[in-house]
Amino acid sequence: MIKGRAKKDRRTKNLIGRLMPGDIAVIYHQDLDEVAALHLVEKRVKAVINGALSISGRYPNQGPKILSEAGIPIIDNIGQEAFDHIQDEDYLEIDEKGLWVNHRYLCDVKFLDKDEVEKKMKEASENIWRVLREFIDNTLDYAEKEKEMVIGPVKVPPIKTRMEKRHVLIVARGRNYIEDLKAIRSYIDEVRPVMIGVDGGGDALLEFGYKPDIIIGDMDSVSDRCLKSCGEIVVHAYPDGRCPGMERIRALGLEAVAFPFPGTSEDVAMILAYENKAELIVMVGSHNSMIDFLEKGRKGMASTLLVRMKVGYKVVDAKGVSELYKNRIQPGYIAAIFAAAMFPILLIARMSPQIQDLYQLIALRIKLLLGL
């Protein structure tokens, strides 16, 4: 039986900051995405209860697989009514027979185990071509509408941070962002690039001991601590000028500039660096595949495609850098290093009369012991 206290939020990314190890996360997240699952694993939750389908079958979302591989049970699709009934800090008990809330039976449950996840992922993979066609059509349709806004001269807001002829590091909380930041740490310490956190990417930089120069985003997944400690803030606004994220900045008594632009906050960060004449743009944790965009609820990637076309020659994507260094040390390498280290020692020993005498003495002892 699984027992623990509930922590609940309809938006998973809003819940992450409140979770403690051993909590049971209660979410309403259809097609649980990769990044949300990685955060749930980091928080070491005891189980995840989802009011919606964790895999709807529309496309092969990675979240359930990540939780399953981490050994975190998924109680799937309990429904709207049961989800609404559970409140923060309720005491939950879960077994094969059902879900109890504060010692009262609430509903039957269905565990999404590893075999079921693999089955549903396989079924979802068979739908990928239909989804891909829709995705490409939407991308091309929006690219036609947005091309002048992106490819032409972009009016960027004035900022204090100087980027001209400097490297710019842009960090988002995507897959492998922790491992990739570790892998390029020596680069950061040596080059000292301008550091931009895309929403929660700012907190990632803080966790590594770096102070973000700029935070860019819609301000829905970055901590107050990060906003108060960074150099300056750029709020991503809609192309029509609406800027909901600015309300939070004002409530904190901070200053920020708005940047109206289509697409994602990562696109905004790249354009800001490019238009400010950055020499090189290094991306960590970026979202740039079809699955990434589907998991973010987007039907296309027009602006990102156009932005990449515009700034592409300056962009280095560090996504997956850590994978290049995994499992690279083989036993043969260790033996070779040992042999290389022993070679000069043996060479010196060969040239030393005293050590040669010692070798002869040891050889004589061995012969006497063996009766030779």
From TrEMBL:
Classification via InterPro entries: Put_SteA-like, SteA-like_C, TPK_catalytic_sf
Domain SteA-like C-terminal: 319-370
GO biological process: thiamine diphosphate biosynthetic process
Single GO molecular function: ATP binding
Pfam families the record matches: SteA-like_C (PF12555)
Protein origin, superkingdom: Bacteria
Protein name, UniProt field: Uncharacterized membrane-anchored protein
